[in-house]
């Protein structure tokens, strides 16, 4: 799910050229693909679709995305309290939202930054706070897997390849929320590789500490908040399509949004860049949605979800950084 850094108090290593170029190359590829589709479709139709949206509709989309981030921030807070971290809701919200500034950086840097802030403010090591990040990712996978399964069961027709993606999301969530199973898998992986004993020892320790979350009410609340958050964003996609004159049905829109988001994550690209957009346009096209609608709809929903999250993260990041430095010093 993620890699653990042994000491985040040290200066980070200088990023390699490949890491520095990854995001610009991905962005250029995504923009190039969307521009190519738009050029083939006709700029007039694209501009007409985007221009038809009212400001209040864009605000509604942003509001539903904000509901997602706040719900998941509350989940992060409840998990932090269950882990025993001495943080309050304001701290945890600041940490969680600030981490979104790194949403499209390689290696889950946003999660590492959150743990760095926790280390400064609480003195807890990365090894002790790593289970919090693992459970947060597991909560997202479980919520999205269940949401996709529900949407597929209620939609008029299915989506090719959706069942394997749903299964992978749910299996990963189950593994991460079962400390004994995860510890066994880490041990088996170490025996198979026979290398990196210190890294595997830390991973085993993090897996064992997940037992703090094996608590029915905690898991139920985490899943409910995840479903509410991701459901809000998926509903915003349904609204957007309706406002652009397309009706594929609520549950089909939810299925397309969640599937595209998961599929983008499976590509390994930060933020699912490229994969999520390609999957969304392709699935909408299969539903008979013309490119004049699917291309701007995809661009707008990514702007009001992923890139809106990054904007929030950039606003919260300096606040979290200053607060953590003040607590440390």
UniProtKB/TrEMBL annotation:
The chain crosses the membrane at residues 21-41, 53-71, 141-163, 169-193, 213-230, 250-269, 276-293, 299-320. The keyword Zinc does not apply. It holds the Pfam family LPG_synthase_TM. It comes from the Bacteria. This is UPF0104 family protein. GO terms for cellular component: plasma membrane. The lineage of its organism: Bacteria, Pseudomonadati, Pseudomonadota, Alphaproteobacteria, Rhodobacterales. It is a multi-pass membrane protein. InterPro entries: L-PG_synthase/AglD. It is found in: Cell membrane. Keywords: Cell membrane, Membrane, Transmembrane, Transmembrane helix.
